Amino acid sequence: MTAGNNGAGTPENDDPFAYLYRSEGGEGGAQGAAGDGAAPRQPGVPRTSYNQVRAVGQRQYGTQTAQPSYGRQQPAPGGQNPHYAAPETLPGGDRGGHGAPQGGGGRQGGGGRGRNGLLIGAIAVVVVVCIGIGVAMLTQSDGDSGGQAADQKPTPTAGASQGGGAKQSKGSKAMENLPSVDAGSMRLEGNAATASDVPGATSANHTYVGGISQPGDGATWTFDVPKAGMYTMFVDYGVPGKDADATLTVDGQARDTSLNMGNFAHAKEGDWEHGWTNTYAYMHLNKGTNQVRISCEDGNTCGFNLSKVWLKAGQYKK
Prior knowledge:
Layout: H1 11-14, E1 60-61, E2 64-65, H2 100-151, H3 173-176, E3 180-182, E4 187-189, E5 193-195, E6 208-212, E7 218-225, E8 229-238, E9 244-250, E10 253-254, E11 259-261, E12 276-285, E13 288-295, E14 304-313
Antiparallel strand pairs: 1-2, 3-14, 4-7, 5-6, 6-14, 7-13, 8-12, 8-14, 9-10, 9-11, 9-13
C-alpha cells in the first residue's frame, strides 16, 4: 500500500467506524445508496476522500431518519449492534420470560398484597378483642346486679351487736315504728315528779322526771310490740356530774344487773345542765303488751333525771 492509495480494500476494512458512513449498498460498498450522488467505486482507483460523511445519527435508512440520541448507542445497519447482547444470551439471563420491569412490578404487587393481608389481620384481632371486652363487661354487670339484689336486706344501724341484726324484722313497718315515750308521760311512783327547770332535756316539751333519789322512786312505761324477740331500750337521762344507776324491771322481773347511768357527758359535779346523756339495755319482750319500770331500789346509787325512752328491735349499741 502506497501513500494516497487506500489499497484494494474498502474503508470499512481500515476504519472501525466505517459502518457509520457505509453506503446503502451493503457490506462491500460496491454501489452508492440511491440518492447519495456517490459514484460506484472502481477497483484500483485511489480513494482519498469520503464525500458523504455525515454526522453520527444523520444517515437515513430507507424511510426512517435516525435522530440524535444522547446516552444511547445507535444500532448498526441491519439491526445488528456489535456492542449489544440479548439478555437471553448472557449467563443468568431472563428465565421467566419477562423483563426486569415486569418482575419488579410483580414483587411490588406481592408486597402490597402482603401489607394488605397484615392490615386485615390486625383489624380482625382488634375486633375480636373489643368483642371479648364487651362480653366480659356485660357478664360482670349482670353478676354485680345479682349480688346487689341479694345484699338488699334490712340491716341493723351502726353499732349493732353481733347476731342482733339477723333477728330484726324484714322491713316490717310495725317494727320500724316501735314505741317511744317522754318520761313525763310514764306512770310516776314515789317522789318522782315532772320538772322543767334544768334546760337540755330531749323530750318534746323539754320536761323531765326528777326526784328519783331514794328507794321506791321511779317511772313505769306500758307499751306494745308486734312480735316477740330481743329489743334494745334507750334511755335519755341527766346526772349532776357523777355516776348513778337504777333497777330495770321487765314484765315484773327485775334484771340481775343494774341500768348503768354513768356521767358519760363528763359534766362537773353538781352541773345538771351539762350532765344530759343516754344509756341502753337489752331485753326480751313478748308479742303484744309489755311493761318496763325504771326505779331507785336498795343498792342503787340514785339521783338522776329521766327525759325520754324508746325501743329498737334487735341488740344495738349507742
